[in-house]
Amino acid sequence: MLTDSTPMLPMSQTALIQDDNGAPRLAVDVPLPSLKAGTVIVKTVAIALNPSDYKMGAAFPTPGAIIGMDFSGIVASIHPDTKTVLHIGDQVCGMVHGSNPSDPTNGAFAEYIRVRPELLLRVPRDLSMEQAATLGVGLMTNVMALWAGDALALESVPATPDSPAEKPFPVLVYGGSTATGTLATQLLRLSGLEPIVTCSPRNFDLVRARGVADGEAVDYMRPDVADEIKKRTHGKLKHAYDCITDPASVAHCYAALGRTGGKYISLEMVEEKLRTRRVVRHKFVLGYEGLGEDVLLSRGYESSADAEKLALAVKYFAVFQRLLDQGKLKTHPTQKLEGGLSGVLQGLQLLNSGSVSGNKLVVTI
């Protein structure tokens, strides 16, 4: 519980919400999310865009739901029954489940956001709020993909930033120049492992700056990409993390894994017909799984609140805080859009067009 005086918050806000068809629209007089025990309210400073911000409305229309997941901001209110080391006025960043059927009043593309404080990161002084806004979704997704027991389960090696692997082994990051991929590469390197990534040659400098060694970046467009990965991993690859998840990436990851198979983690559902090898164990992960809340979607995207995964996320966000404070974790390059929340509409169109590469779109509110 905190003794800081809590300023009065407005009764309503401007936000991007889903219209009757699930498409984004700018709305005023949108209610603020209610402050609950165990949570804080953050006044938004910057937001970052993710493909799911336009995919969610198309796949799971929830009219009136606030859109958006990645944010940075300033702690504006703390519930009296919330235990936290944070103070009002602290600069923080994180993620929230936007476009959420079970909690439509809470999303990042708004002036105020409700969050569990244990899943917030204090923004270091050497990081801009725009840079900080890129972190939440990528870090949470990587917790679920790299260390959850039903995914790559690297804790069991162990291979973590706190307990690096004694014997390094390769981990494929397919889509290494994505925002999630560049964070995964750094976390794998900090965990004592050998990330091998695919990306466009124009992004080789980016992935090298995020910890990829010479010879560990592969042009994803080369026709023999899977064979090249097998060659560079000596046919012993057992861990593949697909940050793209389309038919081509699935096929390449399955083919690149060694003869005895291994684990394949995707960020989208994968049709059974694409899962071509029985010796490959597949798991689809969502960052939402780490929030400790029910995900009331459908068609395989739904999940129940998981206390163990929430505890895992809390554990690793404390690790991430230390890495950020020590300057050991670099954010993804940003491309700033003008126009505040109105600029998000343009940004979602850019994302949907596939023209964004090697940058994460950010907007200042």
Structure notes:
This protein is of the alpha/beta class and 365 residues long. It has two domains: 12-135 and 332-364, Medium-chain alcohol dehydrogenases, catalytic domain (Quinone Oxidoreductase, Chain A, domain 1), CATH 3.90.180; 139-289, Rossmann fold (3-Layer(aba) Sandwich), CATH 3.40.50. The chain is built from nine helices and 15 strands. The strands form three sheets. Strands 3, 4, 5, 6, 7, 14 and 15 form a seven-stranded mixed β-sheet that branches. It has a six-stranded parallel β-sheet with strand order 10-9-8-11-12-13, sandwiched between helices. Helix 3 (136-147) packs across helix 4, helix 3 (136-147) packs across helix 8 (307-325) and helix 6 packs parallel to helix 7. The longest helix has 19 residues, at 307-325. The model has no long low-confidence stretch (mean pLDDT 97).
The total strand number stands at 15
CATH class division of the largest domain: Alpha Beta
Biggest sheet record: 7 strands, mixed
CATH topology of the largest domain: Quinone Oxidoreductase, Chain A, domain 1
| CATH superfamily membership of the largest domain | Medium-chain alcohol dehydrogenases, catalytic domain
